[in-house]
Amino acid sequence: MKQLQSAPIEIDIWSDVVCPFCYIGKRHLEQALEQSGLRDNVNIIWHSFELAPDAITRPEGSIYEELGKRKGWSVEQSQQIHHQMEERAREAGLEFDFSKTVPANSRQAHRLLYLAKKEGVQNEVKERLLKGYFTDGANIDRTDYLVDVAAQAGLDQALIREALGDAALEKEIDADIMTAQRLGIQGVPFFVVNQKYAVSGAQPISVFVQVLEKIREEMKPVNVAGTDGDVCGPDGVC
Question: What is the pLDDT of residue 221?
Answer without folding.
Answer: 65
